[in-house]
Input
Amino acid sequence: MTSTPSDWITTPLTAGLVRGALDLERTEHGLLPHRLPARARAQCADPQLRMAESQPSGVRLALRTRATVVELDTLPTKRVYTGAPARPDGVYDLLVDGRPAGRAIAAGGNTLTIDMTAGTAEQRPGPVATVRFTGLPERVKDVEIWLPHNETTELVALRTDAPVEPAPGRGRPVWLHHGSSISHGSDAASPTTTWPALAASLGGVELTNLGLGGSALLDPFTARALRDTPADLISVKLGINLVNTDLMRLRAFGPAVHGFLDTVREGHPGTPLLVVSPVLCPIHEDTPGPSVPDLSALSSGRLRFRAAGDPAEVAQGKLTLRVVREELARIVRERAAEDPWLHHLDGRELYGEADFAELPLPDGLHPDAAAHRRIGERFASLALAPGGPLGRRDR
Output
C-alpha cells in the first residue's frame, strides 16, 4: 500500500476505540482518559490523586485495520521534579495481533514542575505532539496503542492510511486491579511492561488498572468505582500508601478495610476477589511513615526516600508494613469463612528479601523494570494460573 498524507483518514476518537478507562472527558484539545469516574473525582481535590488517575496506566486504543501507518496526536503532561534527574519521556507501545511491534515517545506537551521540598507544583502549557508507527503489515489486523502509564495524555487526533474500526473483544476475562504506585507502573520501562500488564498478558485476561500512585488509601469513592466497574476477577493491593502517607492508625485501618471490601462486594458478590498485602519495602517494614525525600540524595541529583516515623510509635497504633500484613491476613481469614471467593496473597511472595538483595529498590520505594517483570510473572503464576485464586473459572 502506497499513500500520501492527503490520502490519510482521520478517525474520530470515541469510547469504542478506548479500553481500560473508566471515563473519557472531552477537553478543548480532544479526549482525556480517566481511571476514576467523574463522581469520584468530584469527591477529592487532592492533586496527587488527580495526577495519578489521569495518567493512563493500562489504557490503550484498540483498532482493527489494514493500515500500514498510524499517527496519533497527543498532548502529554511531562513531570519535572526540582533538583532530581530528568525523567524519561513516556512510552507508547504498539501491539499487532497481541505481539510487540513498535515503541515511540511524544516530544513536547505540557510541563508540570513539582518541588517536593516546598510542596508546590506549577504547570506550563506546551505543544501537541505526534507519535508515528510505520511498516505495519498490509492485512486486516488488530492494533493496540498502549498510552504512557506515567504521563497524563490527552488524545487529539488519529490518522491512518486505511479505515479503522474498533477491535472486537477477545472474550477474555476482565481483571480489575487496584493498588499503589507499584501497580500504577512506577519505574517500569513501558506501559505493557508494568507488572499488571505483564501479568494480564501471561494470564490471558483483559486488564483494567486502577493502580493509583500515592493514592491507594481505602477511599470510599475508589471502592465505589470498583463496585460499579464490570469485572470477572478483582484484586486489591493495599497497605504501602497508608504507611508512607501516615494517613491512619490501626484502629481506623481494620474497619476501613472491611468497609472497602463490603462496598466492592455490593457490586460483585460472587466474583473472585484477591487481597494482596505489600511487597517488601525495607524502609517501612518496621518504621512508620511518612516517607519523605532524602535531601542528602536530592542535593547530589538522586531521588531517594526515607521513613520519617519512629518505630516506638507502633505501640500507639502507627502502621508499618509488618502490621498491615498481619491485619490484612487476619481480616481475610475471618471474612473468608462466609465468603469462599475471597483470598489473600502475601506481597512478599511477589517480591521478598531475596528479590531485594538481587534487585533493590532504586529510590527506596519503587521496583525497577526488572523487578516489575519478576512481580508480573509471579502474580500470573500464583494468582491467575489455573488453580490460583483468580484462575478458577468454575463459579
In short: The CA atoms of residues 2 and 161 lie 9 Å apart. The radius of gyration is 21 Å. The mean pLDDT is 93. DSSP finds eleven helices and 21 strands in the chain.
